[in-house]
Design brief:
2 helices, Immunoglobulin-like, about 290 residues, 4-stranded mixed β-sheet, alpha+beta
């Protein structure tokens, strides 16, 4: 250029443009670098997380496998010998039952052992009480599943029959087997009362049936009727209604005497006086004749 001023101006512009462009280019390059580094970091983190999850899964799988192996080992210990010389021990079910087939119990017993069981109890009924006498066969060494049946002796129940005499003479208690009849006891005695019979209830409403079998403890009750006392005779003579007898030689009859104790006493007194006078007169006459 012929003009040095233009050359200087162009140079200044170039320097200014370079000063503006170079920092922006550097910042752009740095930003791109940071983005790439960030992406690479994220990729590394994801990979680490995946590796961690995979490790945990492997641990879980190994734990499950180890647990399963431990369970198999324990099961093997129950059924497999610890060494080649030890025998294999097996367990067998032993059933214990009543005669009617009802189960009492089921136990597991080791092979070669002799099973045992406590004596069972059978509930009593109104008719029988049951006594255990043993099993249907002697328990033997276990070689497999087995069943044992309980055997019982039946004992017929007996019941007491009480006689409540209700003030009368005592009557002994009777003991009777279930289903049997009782004999009627001798009638009790009670002074001033008449025995009316035995009754099944305390209120003396239903008479007791001696033809009814005894099936439980029983009480029967005596019934009484009070006797009516007759009026005492203190005169020493027989008095008939409507007549009064005095001695053996004279009799006075009173007919249709009015009712009333006072009037009766008056008639009796008058009759006695008349009889006495007649007796005296007869005695005097007889003396005069002699």
């Amino acid at each position: 250029m012929k003009n040095p001023g233009k050359r200087i101006l162009v140079l200044v512009l170039c320097i200014t443009l370079a000063a503006v462009t170079l920092p922006w280019t550097a910042r752009k390059a740095k930003a791109d670098t940071d983005v790439e580094a960030s992406e690479e970091g994220n990729t590394g983190n994801d990979s680490a997380e995946r590796d961690e999850v995979a490790g945990e899964n492997d641990n879980e799988n190994r734990s499950s496998a180890e647990q399963e192996a431990a369970n198999e080992s324990r099961e093997a210990e129950k059924t497999e010998p610890h060494n080649e010389d030890a025998p294999v021990l097996r367990m067998y079910k032993i059933t214990w039952k009543y005669e009617d087939g009802t189960k009492i119990d089921v136990t597991e017993v080791e092979e070669g052992s002799i099973p045992k069981h406590a004596d069972p109890v059978m509930k009593a009924t109104a008719e029988y009480t049951y006594e255990f006498i043993g099993w249907d066969r002697e328990p033997a060494k276990v070689t497999g599943p087995a069943t044992y049946t309980a055997m019982f002796r039946r004992i017929k129940n007996k019941y007491a029959v009480h006689f409540e005499s209700n003030g009368g003479s005592a009557v002994a208690i009777l003991t009777v087997e279930y289903g049997k009849l009782i004999e009627r006891p001798a009638d009790p005695e009670r002074e001033g009362y008449t025995f009316e019979g035995w009754y099944a209830d305390e209120d003396l409403i239903h008479t007791y049936d001696f033809e009814k079998p005894i099936v439980a403890e029983t009480t029967v009750y005596a019934k009484w009727t009070e006797e009516k006392n007759a009026a005492p005779d203190d005169s020493g003579t027989n008095v008939i209604p409507g007549e009064i007898a005095v001695g053996t030689e004279a009799e006075t009859t009173v007919e249709s005497a009015p009712e009333g104790d006072g009037f009766k006493k008056y008639v009796i007194g008058g009759a006695a006086l008349a009889a006495l006078l007649i007796g005296v007169a007869v005695t005097v006459i007889l003396r005069k004749r002699h």
